[in-house]
Recover the amino acids of this structure.
């Protein structure tokens, strides 16, 4: 009798284990689905929050679209393209835009660009890491690989060669503002 009771008890345990495994497998699937939905919801909320914070989605007004105006950047150039512009004659002002006195040059450039009869003026930012190849003690050559500029320098280029250069603020100011009406 003890043997029969022991066998019944073993069978009962096997059934309980089997039922537990089946119910546990169902719980793992449900848990996985719940976690997946939670992660997707979190990602969507972060996306929506970012769009609202940056102003791309403006939910509190009737207009809900953002338009961007395309601008062609043809005023700033890199050192490598200093001598190969399409114009026959142009100026290049090399200075450090991140410098404290850059606002003085920006004012002069703005006044110069407002003049209708002015020669094209390009800006070369010497604080840009791409222009490090031509940053150093002044060495004006018509070979871009050996050309060295310091801040500030105004260069007049005619037919791909440097014809004039100015390194003093007052000289640069006088030359550029002489074109202003």
């Amino acid at each position: 009798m003890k043997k029969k009771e022991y066998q019944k008890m073993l069978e009962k345990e096997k059934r309980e284990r089997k039922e537990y495994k089946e119910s546990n497998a169902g719980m793992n699937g449900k848990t996985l689905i719940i976690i997946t939905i939670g992660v997707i919801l979190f990602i969507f909320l972060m996306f929506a929050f970012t769009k609202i914070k940056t102003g791309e989605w403006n939910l509190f007004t009737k207009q809900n679209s953002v338009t961007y105006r395309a601008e062609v950047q043809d005023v700033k150039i890199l050192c490598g393209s200093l001598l190969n512009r399409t114009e026959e004659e142009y100026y290049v002002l090399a200075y450090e835009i991140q410098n404290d006195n850059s606002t003085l040059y920006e004012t002069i450039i703005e006044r110069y660009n407002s003049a209708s009869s002015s020669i094209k003026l390009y800006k070369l930012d010497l604080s840009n890491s791409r222009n490090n190849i031509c940053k150093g003690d002044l060495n004006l050559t018509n070979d871009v690989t050996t050309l060295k500029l310091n801040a500030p320098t105004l260069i007049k280029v005619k037919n791909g060669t440097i014809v004039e250069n100015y390194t003093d603020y007052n000289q640069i100011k006088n030359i550029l503002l002489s074109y202003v009406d």
User: Anything to note?
Assistant: The domain at 76-177 is CATH 3.40.30.10 (Glutaredoxin). The chain is about 40% helix and 15% strand. The mean pLDDT is 82. The first helix runs from residue 2 to 54.
